[in-house]
Every structure is written in structure tokens, then in C-alpha cells.
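Usage

Read records sequentially. Each one opens with the input sequence:
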Amino acid sequence: MARIAGVNIPTAKRVVIALTYIHGIGDAKAKEICDKVGIPAERRVNELSDADVIQIRESIDADYVVEGDLRREVSMNIKRLLDMGIYRGLRHRRNLPVRGQRTHTNARTRKGPARAIAGKKK
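and closes with the structure output:
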């Protein structure tokens, strides 16, 4: 099992798909990494040599922010918004949608399950 950026990537899958298991790497970045290292898109992880895995690991470490560092950076950005007290920070603090979506009827994912209001029945 190959371990890249602290994540055990699945061995039976193609390299491009397996790299997306790393937080911070999606389809486009995975293809970009494979092109940079020179690995064909059809090759599977269990067909990679140790040198290929090391090359991928070094490429990711040098050029991308992934896993723990990325999570820390995102949480620090949100904390900065909260501390400054700007509108986006207030939306984060109240667990409401941050990017202008309506909340009158939708936003159940962000707000959580609906709670009944006492005395509302007519």
C-alpha cells in the first residue's frame, strides 16, 4: 500500500483516481501531478515502483498544500474572519450559509434539522 502525504492510497485504483483520496488534490491536480512525474494515466498504484511513489511524494510536497497544512490554513482563515467580526465571520459563527444563499426555506444542511416553534399551530 502506497502512503503519500500521510494517506494510504488504494492500490487497485488508477493513480489519477487514487491521488484524489488526498485532501486538497482533486481531478485536475492529480492529472497535473501525473503529467509532471511522467506516469501514464492508465497505470495502477500497485504497478508503480518505489521510485515512482517517491517522485510523486516529492512533487506533492514541493508544489501543493495538502492534508493537515491545508486544513489548518482553512481553519485559520475562518478564525480570522470570526475575529475581525465581518459579515462572513458572523455567518460562520451562527452556522448559516456564508455565500449569499437564501435561508428562508432552504439551507437545511447548514442549519441542521428543523425545530418546532412552540405555539405556532393555528
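Summary fields computed downstream for this record:
- The longest helix spans residues 67-84.
- The first strand starts at residue 2 and ends at 4.
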